[in-house]
Structures are given as C-alpha cells and as structure tokens.
Amino acid sequence: MNDANFAAPAVAQAGSTEPDAPLVVLLHGRGSDETQIVSLADHLPVGPAYAAVRAPIAEGGGYAWFANRGIGRPIAESLEQTMSWFTTWLNDVAPQGRPVVLVGFSGGAAFAGGLLLDNPTRYAGVAVLYGTLPFDVGLSVAPGHLEGASTFVAQGDQDHVIPRELLNRTWTYLHDESGATTRSRRDPGGHGITLETLQELGDWITERVATVE
Q1: Rounded-to-integer distance, Cα 47 and Cα 16, Å
Q2: Burial class (CB in 10 A: 0-12, 13-18, 19+), 29
Q3: What are the CA-CA distances from residue 7 to residues 37, 112, 139 (Å)?
Q4: Beta bridge partners of 49
Q5: Alpha carbon distance 171, 118 (integer Å)
Q6: How far apart are CA 171 and CA 166, in angstroms?
Q7: pLDDT reported for residue 210
Q8: Which three-class secondary structure string do you get for 81-122?
Q9: What is the pTM of this model?
C-alpha cells in the first residue's frame, strides 16, 4: 500500500466558509464515513469551519483510517501511509497559521492521536473521543513529548469496544505523562458520544480557538 494510491479525500463541510476561519477536522470511526460524523457540527460552536474527512481505506461498508492487528492497534506502516496522505490534504486546506483542531471518535481517535504524536506543535487541540492513542507503532510516547499541546479525552466506563488496557493507558499518558494540558470527561455509559460530552467538547473548542486567534 502506498499513500500515492489513495484517492483525494471526500470531505463534508459545515460551519464557516471563510478560508481563514479556524478549522475543526472531524474524524469518524472504523466502518463509518464523513456523512455521519459531520452532524456533530450542529452541536458544536458557531465560528469555526468544520470538515469531516472520509478515511481512505474501504472496510465493512464504510471506511477505516488504517489497517490494524487488533482493535485499537494499528499496523505501523499503514498508519504512516494514511497520516502522510491526510497531512498532504491538511497542509493544502490549512497552511501553517490557520488554527486546526482535530476531533476523532473511536478509530478516528487513534488516527488523531497518531497525528498529534507525530507532530505535537501542529494542532491547536486534539480530542480523543472513546478511543486510544496508537501505541507501539514507532511514535514517541516519551514523558513530556506533548509539552505545550492541548488535548481533550472522553471515555465511557462501560466501553467494551476498545480494550480497557488501551483506554487506561491513554488516560494515564495524557493526564500524567505526556506534558499536555488535558481536559477530560468520563461517562457511565459505553462506546458512544453523549450530549454531555458534546457540550464539554464544544466549550473546549471555543477555548482553543480563542487562545490561538
């Protein structure tokens, strides 16, 4: 697999149409697509532009961000290729200087986390929703690696989709080891975004946009 063989991304857009508006990129879960996650924009702050991007790998009637060797465990080569493909698109639509916030759900959370670990200073904020960081793929998770970064993490206590060990490792790394400024929420439910999480996520996005404008 080579990133040059991936088609240009399909993108569903919402929010501001101003070319220099802060950009919030919505990254869907495995087996889903951009048309589902773009609806989150209806519940998020007015002001930013929202772009829901379709992952490049067809899978299960939808699309995936990477080939994996188990749930929450990307194959390193696949993740490297899709991150390169995504970054090419992002650098075109949001050159350095335009604030970018990543919001990833489930498989999209692992992808967003990979982009953050690969380039911690690129993003105004990264939200990891009901998913894991991509551990053991050659990206640094050294203490302090995300110093200066801002993250939002949400998890469900009854999430039985993502392995609990990966959820716990993600929570601990972002809070205690990464050096990032982390806002977090735990839900009593399972593997799904709650309205309460969307409200807190919206507040966090507003803060991140205000900080970098």
Answers
A1: 6
A2: buried
A3: 20, 20, 25
A4: 15, 23
A5: 18
A6: 9
A7: 83
A8: HHHHHHHHHHHHHCCCCCCEEEEEECHHHHHHHHHHHHCCCC
A9: 0.95
Distance (Å, whole) CA 195 – CA 123: 25
CA separation for the pair 198, 146 (Å, rounded) = 24
What backbone phi and psi angles, to 5 degrees, belong to 182? -120, 130
């972002």: which residue's tokens?
Answer: 174
Kindly state the greatest CA–CA separation across the chain.
42
Q: Among 67-71, 140-144, 170-174, which stretch is predicted with the lowest mean pLDDT?
A: 67-71
Q: Which helix (H) or strand (E) covers residue 26, if one does?
A: strand 23-27
Q: Which fold has domain 3-212?
A: Rossmann fold (3.40.50)
Q: Phi-psi bin for 134: left (phi > 0), alpha (psi -120 to 50), beta? A: beta
pLDDT in tens, 115-161: 999 999 999 999 999 999 999 999 999 999 999 999 999 999 999 99
